[in-house]
Amino acid sequence: MSQSQHGGGAGDKEKKKKETILDLTKYLDKAVRVKFSGGREASGILKGFDPLLNLVLDGTTEYLRDPDDAYKLTEDTRPLGLVVCRGTSVVLICPADGMEPIANPFMQQDT
């Protein structure tokens, strides 16, 4: 059998590109807020991302937690600058300027 029948070799130049779970292209160069596993939160300008949800944020600010209550955020912040966020620790990404309302897709229309 040739190498191409086994799935290897030089003939496999066209590899399937991994699809992203989320399409974040509409948020590029816009402010986003990110929550991480462990409770940390940060916001910054989304400069890039990859299929594994690794993020590059610029002008990043971390929101510090209360030392007595790990679940409570304080008014204190810490500037971080340019940051690479590992995708496995990202729990939530949302636009910093809020969300836009959409029609309920589950509601049946009366005809």
3D architecture notes:
- It contains no helices and 5 strands.
- With 111 residues, the chain is mostly beta strands.
- β2 and β3 (55-65) form a beta hairpin.
- The protein is globular, with a radius of gyration of 20 Å.
- One of its GO terms (biological process) is nuclear-transcribed mRNA catabolic process.
- Residues 19-99 form the Sm domain.
Looking at this protein, list some descriptive labels.
5 strands, 111 residues, single chain, mRNA splicing, 41% strand
In DSSP terms, counting alpha (H) and pi (I) runs of 4 or more, how many helices?
A: 0
SS strand fraction: 35-45%
Radius of gyration of CA atoms, rounded to a whole number: 20 Å
Largest sheet: 5 strands, antiparallel
Along the chain, the helix and strand elements come as EEEEE
Provide the spatial order of strands within the biggest beta sheet. 4-3-2-1-5
- Low-pLDDT regions: none
* Strands, total number: 5
Estimate the helix proportion, in percent: under 10%
Identify the overall geometry. Answer: globular
Distance between the termini: 62 Å
Quaternary arrangement of the chains shown? single chain
- Give the mean pLDDT: 82
Protein structure class: mainly beta
